[in-house]
Amino acid sequence: MLTGKFYGIGVGPGDPDLITVKAVKTLQQIDVVIAPQSNRGANSTALAIARPHLSQTTEILELVFPMVEDSAAMQEAWEANKGSILSLLQQGKQVAFLTLGDPMLYSTYIYILRLLAKEQVKVETIPGITSFCASASRASFPLGEGNDIVTIIPATCEPARLQKALEVSDNVILMKVSRNTPELLRQLQLNGLSQHAVMVSKCGHPDESVHYDINNLAELKPTYLSTILARKHPTGV
Fold first, then answer.
1. Which residues of the chain have pLDDT under 50?
2. According to CATH, what is the number of the domain 5-126?
3. 3-state SS string over 66-80?
4. In the chain, which segments carry CATH 3.30.950.10?
């Protein structure tokens, strides 16, 4: 019988202060915190953000959730992690799974929810501040006004889909911009979205950077935690 409870907790973009009061209260009474890793030995950014809010008695469990082309190996690893989570819940543990930003946006947590869906697990999801909301505040860049159409786009999507989204949007939020940056910039320029744009990297982290001229490709050094905000008209701010 699963007597424990599973929490998905969004810890925000990077600043430990940009975490909700509810998330902090929950973290302080959790038995086990799961810090997901993409590969063994990698540092968990989400754990670093949450650590100041954890009780000294909280157990930290680092689990690898590989994103590899070998689907069989990936499925095997994820099923093993599912077993570890269920074992903790069977012991009556309160278990928290940490995610950067918000748990319901481009998060490993979504896949964990699907794995646990048939297991009658008690689940509570606690939202977090997204990187693009934090970036917009940092850069004083309004995301949407009046009847603006605002579109969230993973820059890794197919070029044809990217083009369609850029055509119909007033404002865009581009995530995962560290890949194929020159082509992405070209598409923004073609659709009149590069002149009123900003790129924020590692928002809320000690090495945060803000670029207000994204047309200067030589100065852009996007990381995995980089977001571009762009609009077709001036902000007026």
1. none
2. 3.40.1010.10
3. CCCCCHHHHHHHHHH
4. 131-231
The tens digit of pLDDT for each residue in 125-155 reads 999 999 999 999 999 999 999 999 999 999 9
Helix (H) / strand (E) element for 131: namely: helix 131-139
Tokens 């090495």 belong to residue? 207
DSSP 12: B
Contacts of range 66-69, beta carbons closer than 8 Å, 24 or more positions apart: 66/38, 66/39, 67/38
Domain range 131-231, CATH architecture: 2-Layer Sandwich (3.30)
Distance of alpha carbon 69 from alpha carbon 116, whole angstroms: 23
Q: 3-state SS of the chain: helix, strand, coil percent to 5?
A: 30, 25, 45
Cα–Cα distance list, 86 to 92, 98, 150 (Å): 10, 16, 39
Q: In which residue ranges of the chain is CATH 3.40.1010.10 found? A: 5-126
pTM for this entry = 0.90
